[in-house]
From TrEMBL:
The keyword Ribonucleoprotein does not apply. InterPro entries: DUF6622 (IPR046730). It comes from the Bacteria. The chain crosses the membrane at residues 6-23, 35-56, 62-83, 104-124, 130-154. Pfam families: DUF6622 (PF20327). Keywords: Membrane, Transmembrane, Transmembrane helix. This is Transmembrane protein. The keyword Transmembrane applies.
């Protein structure tokens, strides 16, 4: 099966997700103020996408689940440490002011591309499904772990902002 044929069978939601991630990342290039709910939407999307990798077919093997868990646990500290930076949180109005950075655009598109490439590889090389499935589990776990760490760091900042105004 050719790559163009496989790409033509990619579900619409995948292209919509890519468009959303590019749009969100492009917004992050300049200073901006956004509603609190928009700040947490991308991490939620990636955590859910990462969790979906845990539910993938393991064909009776524990290896994908263990790979997922190790990758998730390994990246939680990185997400927490790198996490949301250069933000000012206005809890009263549920707004977040962020300074411009290319990091979210690069991160989001790179992670999407990696997930997409693994999916394409699995479709094009079904005989390597187990090995590629382990790679998908590792990436999915890493996504979930990183963004869980990010969310924990954001929650800490949000709580700190409440203490500063109290």
């Amino acid at each position: 099966m050719s790559a163009p044929m496989i790409v033509s069978h990619v579900p619409l939601w995948v292209w919509l997700l890519l468009a959303y991630l590019v749009w969100q990342g492009s917004q992050a290039l300049s200073d901006h103020t956004v509603p609190l709910r928009r700040v947490v939407l991308v991490p939620i999307v990636f955590i859910i996408w990462g969790l979906s990798g845990l539910i993938s077919r393991s064909e009776g093997s524990m290896a994908p689940s263990l790979t997922w868990m190790v990758a998730a646990a390994s990246l939680i500290p990185a997400g927490y440490r790198i996490g949301p930076r250069h933000m000012t949180i206005d809890r009263a109005r549920a707004l977040v002011h962020r300074t411009g950075t290319p990091w979210p655009l690069v991160r989001n598109v790179s992670l999407f591309a990696a997930q997409f490439a693994i999916g394409m590889a699995i479709a094009m090389r079904p005989e390597q499904q187990f090995a590629l499935g382990l790679l998908r589990a590792a990436l999915s776990g890493a996504l979930a772990g990183y963004f869980l760490g990010w969310a924990l760091a954001f929650r800490r900042q949000y709580e700190d902002a409440g203490r500063m105004t109290a």
